[in-house]
Write a structure and sequence with these properties.
heterodimer; A: 159 residues; alpha+beta; eight-stranded antiparallel β-sheet; 4 helices; 43% strand; globular; B: 124 residues; mainly alpha; Arc Repressor Mutant, subunit A; 5 helices; 54% helix
């Protein structure tokens, strides 16, 4: 574990079903932005380490769209969305859908703050349409799965 | 306030004062007065925070005696923090990969890739 001062911070809002992740980078906004808009760079970091990411298309411009796959063996997980507003080095507003749950959609807003001295703060907000979806979103990485998580919580709270 | 228990716990922990209260309760039970001490707020304000934590199942108040110490329901708290921490760690792992990408990039780049190149096809 390094002693860096800019570990990812996460906040889930009490009033609106959103998750907000804040992270600082030792690179200026132009670079951080490019790493979000250039598919050749995006594939190098957006996917989890144990999955291979392939891009179907990635047109990060206002009115553009994207689709990519995370692949592990024979398993493919598709994701797609539209770029609603793209302002170089400042802002990306996009939708995000996991194709396993095609009716679900998150509205994502990425704000690139120039901290000076070649540093950038990225504030990534994901908004969904229910608290249950938001919490499932946060819990999605758990091995136990969302339902089991809920059951365990119900058990704990029933004590 | 949303209805399901998971949301109540998430919401309860979204507030920095309440997170701090919970963090202090991990060291042991404490009275409302003791919990209010380090903050520039009234005992009433801390009581309100405790009510939210209690409704979420995160803390309980013992009925015995005058002190009525506040007790952290550690199992509920652990479950929630594990969920949130796991999600945070995934984001952190992703962003460390981004750190590497940024280090490998030339200093003088345009914020967006050239637009005249052909549609990016499936990767190699």
């Amino acid at each position: 574990m390094t002693t860096r001062t800019h570990e990812t911070e996460i906040v889930s809002d009490p009033d609106v079903p959103l998750v907000r992740i804040t992270r600082e980078f030792d690179a200026p906004p132009d670079k951080v932005f490019r790493a979000h808009t250039d598919p050749d760079l995006v594939v190098k970091w957006l996917g989890p380490r144990d999955l291979t990411m392939t891009v179907d298309h990635y047109d990060c411009r206002t009115g553009g769209s994207y689709r990519y796959l995370h692949v592990r063996g024979d398993d493919e997980f598709g994701f797609h969305g539209c770029f609603h507003e793209v302002r170089p080095s400042e802002l990306i507003v996009q939708t995000f859908t996991f194709e396993g749950v095609p009716d679900g959609v998150a509205l994502e807003k990425l704000v690139f703050e120039d901290l000076g001295d070649g540093r950038t703060r990225l504030i990534a907000t994901s908004l969904v349409d229910s608290f249950a979806d938001r919490d499932a979103f946060v819990a999605s990485g758990m091995e136990t799965g969302v339902r089991e998580g809920y059951e365990r919580l119900d058990e704990l709270l029933a004590k | 306030m949303s209805a399901d228990p998971l949301s109540r716990v998430f919401s309860a922990l979204a507030d920095p004062t309440r997170r701090d209260i919970v963090a202090r309760l991990t060291a042991g039970d404490a009275t409302v007065g003791e919990l209010a001490e380090p903050y520039d707020v009234t005992v009433q304000a801390v009581s309100k925070h405790l009510k939210v934590l209690e409704d979420a199942g995160l803390v309980s108040r013992t009925r015995d005696a005058q002190r009525r110490p506040v007790h952290l329901e550690a199992e509920v708290f652990d479950l929630m923090t594990r969920w949130i921490e796991r999600y945070r760690r995934q984001a952190e792992e992703r962003y460390r990969q981004l750190d590497d990408v940024l280090r490998a990039m030339p200093d003088d780049v345009e914020p967006t890739p050239p637009t005249d190149r052909p549609e990016t096809g499936a990767t190699p």
